[in-house]
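Q: What structure does this chain adopt?
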Amino acid sequence: MQKLALFIFCIFLFSACKTDTNSNASATAKRYPIKGKVVSVDRAAKKATIDHEKIEGYMEAMTMDFPIHADWVWDDLKPGAEIRAEMVVDNTAKDPYYLENIGIVAAADPNQPAPPVNENFAQIGQSVPDFALTNQDGKRVAINDFKGKALAITFIYARCPLPDYCIRMSTAFSDTAKLIAANEELKDKVRLLSISFDPANDTPEKLRSYGIGYMGNDPKTKFDVWQLAVGKDAEVKKIADFFGLRYEVDQNDKTQINHSLRTAVIGPDGKVTKILPGNEWTVADLKNELELALKAPRQ
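A:
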């Protein structure tokens, strides 16, 4: 009986694990084994959100989105499934990182209840705790400064090299800021705040230079709508934890920080109205959520 069970298990593993024979990775690409659980899948975008264990030699455990190029996986990849795969890091590719050679080692349990709410992460309707930061002009920034306005908060660090991470967040925020500034109805009602989680490098002066680069390289740029701010490690960590952002310094390259993506929209009453995980949202999506936040009834 044991032999039969082992035989069936081996058949399952064989059928659920395929090799991606059409890999287009360059000769300089690096590969890292990865193990984790599927949180969600986006078949149209060919991406999956994976809650993965520590990737030895590359990054700490966290939840993040991974592109997956193989077509066969989408019939089998379900939320709750446990997988093993290879993360390909290839800076010459369209996607600088993605998953290949995926094996489903435990199928999702359709009867499994939804995971409990993690109270450490911001939930819709919760008030954002106060914080003390310093903006790009060396001025104090606190959550109460934004009362009466709709606010979007995201997290970045200036040295981030990944086009789909901080660069994408800052491009979206600067583009949104330009739209808001040109809108007579919104320019005094909406604010944007990018918080750096790299206080060792991101001084207010550096954040100002960073922001100017995204706003058209005009040294006279005024950060009326969009601000960038930084604070002490413990203060930034407190805010990041509230919004469910995870970040760790890369142990192989201390100039790099491995992190997830989290953007939040807060209403004029200081309460969270929307959490935008990942990077699939657009400038139009963010503007729409900010306008909805302005219309939300105050409690």
